[in-house]
Each structure stands twice: as C-alpha cells, then as structure tokens.
Structures
1.
Amino acid sequence: MAESEYLHASHNVSNLVYHFVCPAKYRRIIFTDPVDETLVQICAGIEERYDWIRFLEIGADRNHVHYLIQSTPNHSPSEIIKVVKSITARRIFAEHPEVKKQLWGGQLWTDGYFVSTVGRYTNEDVIAKYVREQGKPDYEEYKQLSMFER
C-alpha cells in the first residue's frame, strides 16, 4: 500500500504508526475471498473520508485482521480503531449477508483489540539509549541540539 511519512500540521510534525490486530467475533473464519477484498475497498473509503487515517497495510488472516495505520497526534488509537471497526462491520454485513448469519450476536468484531506503535526510522532501544545518555559529555553519537551558541 503506502509508506509512512512525516505529517506536518500547524503546531507539530509527527510520524505515528500503529499496528492493530482485530479478531472476528467468536474467532469465526470470515476473512476469505471475497470478504477480505471487500474489507480493503471499505478501508480505502475510510481513508478518503477521514483525512487523519492512512492505511499503510491491511492483512486478513481468516479470523482476524492486521492493520498498519498512520494517524495524527490529536486522534487516539482507541478513536482510530473505533472508526475502523464500526464502518467495516456495517459495510461487510451489508455487502455479505452470509457473514452476519455466521455471527449470531450481530457483531463482526470482538470488543478488544491489540495495538502497538511502530517506528520506521528508529526503534525503542535507540531512543532509550538517546534519552538515557542526555547530558553526558562523553556521549558523542547523539548530541543535544542548541538554539543558541554557548
């Protein structure tokens, strides 16, 4: 699909990428052809409607779906996934009535989900080392930037 990029807003620059995993209700096997193809089309529509949601990757694995989503700092992961889960459920049920028959409770997704942040340009170890070494004069790999000469 797409690559993450720095998003520029009036008061911030960000690169926030989330890995979400959403299981189907009752772990039913529902994401097979053509349902998984419909899911990708629905997500493209979500991306057009919500300019703060960018799908970088979508991977359906029979009873759950992995999403790699980029967003902005003023939208929480719970807000992002709420939009994605509600719209995809409504549209999949409308376009694939056979799926709704498999899920007798009327819900496509489980209530829960997994979310983790993803770093494209760095990782947790690099940032931890950078933070830990702040202010130490011998740490030459990363230097604190200064706005003024001292």
2.
Amino acid sequence: MRKSRYHFKFEDLTIYTVAMEFGEVINKQTKKFPKEERFELTSQFKRAADSIALNIAEGSGGSDKQFHNYLGNAWHSAHECVSCSSKALLRDYITSEEDEENRRLITELSKMITTLRAIILKRINN
C-alpha cells in the first residue's frame, strides 16, 4: 500500500492491511462479472469485502467497546463474502480456484478478527 505523509494508527494494523488487500482481490474478480449483475451480486460482494476494512478503520478510533462492536460488523461482512463467493462460483463468474482462495483469505481474516476481539474483550473486562 502507498505510504502517505499523513498516517493513521489503524494503517499499522496487519488485519487492516489484509482486509484492504482482500477488498482489492474481490474488486478485480467482480470486474469479470456480467453487466446485469452490476447492481446486484457485484455490488453486494464489493460492499461486503470493502466493509471489512472500513469497519476496522472506523472502529479503531473509538473506545475498546466500540472497536469490539465494529470488529463484529467486520466479521459478519467477512462471512457475507463466503455466500457471495459461493453464488459467484455457482453462476460460473469465478473459478473453483478463485473461490477456494477467497475462502482461504476470509478464513484468515475471520481468525484475525476473532483473535483481536478476544484481546479487546479482555481489556474491556479488566
């Protein structure tokens, strides 16, 4: 990712970087989807994928409780991407290899989100 003179703390989070990269993978994949899907599966998949990083960034600036909640939203968006990827595979918009890679990345992100939520929850409860 490009470095800026104006840096935000959340940009140092590995989870944010991975989420940003995943959003770009999905953006590239959805460019191949049929035009009639532009306002349907294409839009839904891109919004869900981008929502992961957006929730991480938005939540990181608040309290631990707020961040925990935003990470929950990111987790839900990641799981929404599983359904979107499955639909894309069923409709022959992506290959089984692309679906498998999407699932690998979503699994990685989900584990990272779950781990970070647990760490934050411990801080909240102490």
3.
Amino acid sequence: MKVILKADLEGIGPAGTVVDVSPGYARNYLIPKGLALVATSKNVKGLEKQRAEIMRRVDKEAKRIRALGERLSQTRVVVAKQAGEEGRLFGSVTTRDIADALEMEGIKVDRKKIVIEEPIRTTGHYLIKVKLPYQVEAQVQVDVIEAG
C-alpha cells in the first residue's frame, strides 16, 4: 500500500515521501497515529503544496534534536547504587536508571534511545551513547557511585 509519510520514520523514510508499506501497518498504525496519508492522486497533489511546510517543520525539529544532542554531550549525571567489595554493584545500572538521572537534570530522553554496550556492574565513570532521531548521537557522562 502506498502512503505519504508526514513524519520521518526510521527504517521507512523521510517525511514528505511516498513509500510502499504493508496494508495492515498503514491502516493500523501509520494512518491512525497521523504519521501517514493514503497516497491517492488528490493527496499526492496536496503533498506538492505542503512539501515546503513539511520540510520547514522537519528542519525545525532537526535543529531542536541537534540542540538536545549538544546539551546531552555537556551533561554529567550521577547514579547511586548499592555496592559491595571493590565497588562491585548489586545488580547493574540500566537504561532506566540513566533516563531517570537525565530527567532529574531536566532532560527527557526515551530509555530505548540510550545504548549501553555492556552492563555497568562497577562504580566509576562511563561515557554512554544516546541515539537520537536525524542521525544525532550524543555521549553522556555517567558517574556511578556507591549509595550510602
């Protein structure tokens, strides 16, 4: 089924393009969420008129995401966890812990966008990657300390 994307969708395409997706995905997800329109001849003609508006909105959102990436790169958060001998944690630091620490700093990031290469199981300083839309990646400095 051909649809016109109203927003950038990772793995599918940028806003303002006509793409072919499965009918169920279009009917059950993309169209009800307002992420796409059915690609009828009328909608395609309307798209040409709206393309400038869509591109302006996409550029504005991309600038906001880049600014968020800059802010994240300059942010240092502290996560306190219970630890035993030699700074070994009881459990590990999760993406949820980092997302909560960022939220306490006033930065809201979906925990699914936080990438931890291997589990953090000891106290120390870590650089954690955050993947944002528009191919923006930021490195957040996370300090894991012993709660006490």
